[in-house]
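tool=predict chain=A
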Amino acid sequence: MSAPVVLVHGFGTSGQLWRPVAAALSGALTPDLPGFGAAAPQGRPGQTTGDLAAALAGQLGPRRDVTLVGHSMGGKVALLVAARWPHLVGRLILVAPSPPTPEPMSGEDRAALRAAHGDAHALRRQYTQITRQPLAPRDMDQLILDGQRASRDAWHAWPDVGSREDISAEVAALPMPVTVLFSEDDPAIPPDVIRREVLGRLPGAQARPVQGSGHLLPLEVPDQVIAALRAADRA
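tool=predict ok
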C-alpha cells in the first residue's frame, strides 16, 4: 500500500480483529477505540460516535492522507473522522459498516447485545450466529477475551447511543474516494441495509460485494479484504 493504512475494529472487538489482514500489510496500524482492547479503561458511559471519532483522530496525530479502514462500528466512526478531519483521510474503506443512520436492531437484539458483555457463552453464541465461515480457535478465543475485558460502559453505550445516532447529514459529501466492502450473506448488517443506508447515503461510493462470509470479514475472508484494499490503492 502506498499510503499509511489504519484498520479500525468494530463493536466489542479490538485491533486484534485485523491480525490476518495486518500481517499482509507493511506498517498497518490497528488502534483500539476507547472502551475496547487495550483502551478498555478509557470507556465512558454514554460515549457517542463523535467521542470515538475524536479519540481516533487524536491517535492519528500528525499523519495525513491515510487509508482509513473501518469495520462495523468502526466504519461509522471512520465515516465521522473523514467528515470532521478530512485532511487526515486520503481514502476511506468501509467493511460491513454500521450505517450512518440508526442501525436497524430490534429491542430484543439490543438487549441480547448488552447482556453478552463478559459472558463467554453468550459471546461465543453471538459470534457463531453472525459468521458464515468457521473461525480459527485462536480468533474465537481472542473475540471472547475482548468481550470479557471491554468496558461495560462502552459496551452498553453502543447499542444504547452510538448505533442509534444519525450522522448521515455530516457524511453526505465526503471529498475522498470511498469503497464499501460487504457480504451478501451478512446476517448482522444485511446487504439491503448496506445498499439503502450506506451506499444510498454516500454518493459516488464504490460497492464491492462478496459472498460466503458473515459479518466478520477480516477474520472470515481476510484475502478478500486484502484484495479490496490493494484494488482501492491502485484506483
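Residues 2 and 233 are 7 Å apart (CA to CA). The chain has ten helices and five strands.
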